[in-house]
Write a structure and sequence with these properties.
Layout: H1 25-50, H2 56-68, H3 77-100, H4 120-127, H5 138-163, H6 169-181, H7 189-218, E1 224-227, E2 235-239, H8 243-253, E3 259-262, H9 273-276, E4 281-284, H10 292-299, E5 303-305, H11 315-318, E6 321-324, E7 334-335, H12 348-355, E8 367-370, H13 374-379, H14 381-390, E9 395-398, H15 410-418, E10 423-427, E11 442-443, E12 446-447, E13 449-451, H16 458-471, E14 482-487, H17 491-502, E15 509-511, H18 520-530, H19 538-546
Parallel strand pairs: 2-3, 2-5, 3-4, 5-6, 6-7, 9-10, 9-14, 10-13, 14-15
Antiparallel strand pairs: 1-8, 11-12
The protein binds iron/sulfur/oxygen hybrid cluster and iron/sulfur cluster.
Iron/sulfur cluster (SF4) is lined by residues 3-6, 8-9, 15, 19-21, 23, 28, 71.
Length: 552
């Protein structure tokens, strides 16, 4: 196997024996083949789009396939094989339609568009030859994968928006075109780089789409206090990012005596007005995704994973772990898709299961505050501007992104703790768990950690920055008193980064390590064009980013 798509790539270069995440070579190969299949589908769909043919099934398929291949999402080999077969059938149907419409592809067709879905053994054999290393040139491989990871992030956001009935056809068209381009040796370094940058533009659209879908459906996030302790009722823990899954579970569990808690990236659901009306929406339990192996154990009740990150479950709670959507794990019950787009998923099995189990063991007590998405922050624009103008707030530090298990991520706790008192942290994503329970105080009533929400809500931070730029009358987003020290882990963070680059943000610090998939040439390009840098010591970075003197 060879995989280098996430921040925990072994030795900072790539996992070759087994994933740091736990992915086996067999699963890694099948996920490679799934992406390869999606490329073949997109190859056909891009041609169909050019001819004005409808590609609805291919659109759904490619979004789902890419989402399933994201780090810590789908761990289920039979399900992956099934998905590969479905893709081949879809691709061939689309190629048939194209032929019937008189379309003739120029030149030899890529293998992704022609391979046959043989038996499982044949697919597993093929899977071993279609991975990342199939692109021999290191720079081309780097750009192709950077583009694909950005597309995976877009796919995740499109899937969530689709679940709420929102679509962006132009982004899906790009997705097909860009994915197809990764099969085409005629698309050289510069053209690929152009697609990577274009991907950032579509990333902004996809995040705006999801923001619109979430807020139109569940209201605008507002300042909220979230309980960290537990009640005495049996309960269900919900993790991942899918708000519609949570909404349906809340509705179906109301009045059953079962409480609902959030874990990891579901925490920001507490900020939405629509969810607050549920008295049994009890609070947040635990921390970021990588702590689930201990925290799920002590929760006692069933757990619903709506998206990544799912860590391979320990035996202690595997029997009460349920998956749905893109996420899956062999042996764990999977809640099926909606029968129709307007139908609800059926969570009755989880609710019945919860009733037979004890209440959660308490991990901590107290509260945390969040809900500082763009609408709420802009509602506070007056006091925020006053604080900036008076110098009470000297700098905003964007510390959005992901958390992970690497010990070196203690840097972020240290950095947050040692930031001067006239700075405010803007955050989104599970990165916040490194500092959201510290008592960092406030500046004239404005908390020093403003949590906008999930990783996709990084969009909110961009909206806030653009609004600040406008009201402060600045020409360039980089003139704002905002610096960026972002933590990344998986591919959704890649699209957030590309989106920020598209918006013109420069000098982003990215850690705890730079992506293994950036070849020296591609990394150098990002450094020279955008000033991207890694992280150093907390002292040096405080000095660089907020002008704090280096400690003696
Ligand atoms: Fe975290 Fe995982 Fe939201 Fe990611 S839970 S790491 S970027 O999947 O999606 O921030
Ligand atoms: Fe390694 Fe990350 Fe790939 Fe898992 S997803 S195999 S940890 S690079």
């Amino acid at each position: 196997m060879f995989c280098f798509q996430c921040q925990e790539a072994s030795r900072g270069t790539g996992c070759t024996v087994r994933g740091t995440c736990g992915k086996t070579p067999a699963l890694a190969a099948l996920l490679d083949l799934l992406v390869f299949t999606a490329k073949g589908v997109s190859h056909a769909a891009a041609a169909a789009n050019e001819r004005g043919l409808k590609t609805g099934h291919a659109d759904t398929y490619v979004v789902d396939a890419l989402f399933m291949s994201i780090t810590n999402a789908n761990w289920d080999e039979p399900r992956t094989l099934d998905m590969i077969r479905r893709g081949v059938a879809l691709r061939d149907a689309l190629l048939g339609e194209l032929a019937a419409a008189g379309h003739a592809f120029a030149g030899a067709q890529p293998a992704a568009a022609t391979f046959r879905a043989g038996d499982d053994d044949a697919l597993r054999l093929l899977a071993r030859s279609v991975g990342v290393l199939a692109t021999g040139d290191a720079d081309m491989r780097s750009l192709r994968e950077l583009l694909i990871y950005g597309l995976k992030g877009i796919a995740a956001y499109l899937e969530h928006a689709r679940n709420l009935g929102h679509a962006a056809p132009e982004v899906v068209e790009f997705l097909h075109r860009a994915l197809a381009a990764t099969l085409d040796d005629a698309v050289g370094f510069d053209a690929l780089l152009g697609l990577v940058m274009e991907c950032g533009r579509h990333g902004v659209t996809a995040m705006a789409l999801l923001d619109g879908a979430n807020t139109a459906t569940y209201g605008h996030p507002e300042i909220s206090t979230v309980q960290l302790g537990v009640r005495r009722n049996p309960a269900i823990l919900v993790s991942g990012h899918d708000l519609r899954d949570l909404a349906e579970l809340l509705e179906q569990s109301a009045g059953t005596g079962v409480d609902i808690y959030t874990h990891g990236e579901m925490l920001p659901a507490h900020y939405y007005p629509v969810f607050k009306k549920y008295a049994h929406f009890a609070g947040n339990y635990g921390n970021a995704w990588w702590k689930q192996d201990t925290e799920f154990d002590s929760f006692n009740g069933p757990i619903l994973l709506t998206t990544n990150c799912l860590v391979p479950p320990r035996p202690g709670y595997a029997k009460r772990l349920y998956t749905t959507g893109a996420v899956g794990f062999e042996g764990c019950p999977h809640i099926p898709e909606r029968a129709t787009p307007s139908a609800a998923k059926d969570f009755s099995a989880l609710i019945a299961h919860a009733k037979s189990l004890p209440a959660p063991n308490e991990l901590e007590t107290g509260t945390i505050t969040g809900g500082f998405a763009h609408n709420q922050v802009l509602a506070l624009a007056g006091p925020v501007l006053d604080a900036i103008n008076s110098g009470a707030i000297r700098k905003f530090v964007v510390m959005a992104g992901c958390d992970g298990r690497m010990k070196s991520r203690a840097y972020y706790t240290d950095f947050a703790e040692r930031l001067p008192k006239d700075t405010v942290i803007l955050t989104a994503g599970c990165a916040k768990y490194r500092y959201n329970k510290l008592n960092l105080g406030d500046i004239g009533g404005i908390p020093r950690v403003l949590d906008a929400g999930q990783c996709n809500d990084s969009y909110s931070l961009a909206v806030i920055a653009l609004k600040l730029k406008e009201v402060l009358g600045l020409k360039d987003i980089n003139e704002l008193p905002i610096v960026y020290n972002i933590a990344w882990y998986e591919q959704k963070a890649v699209i957030v980064l590309l989106a920020l680059l598209h918006l013109g943000v420069k000098n982003i610090h990215l850690g705890p390590t730079l992506p293994a998939f950036l070849s020296p040439r591609v990394a150098e390009l990002l450094v020279s064009a955008f000033g991207i840098a890694g992280i150093g010591s907390v002292d040096d970075d405080l000095a660089n980013l907020v002008g704090e003197p280096v400690a003696a």
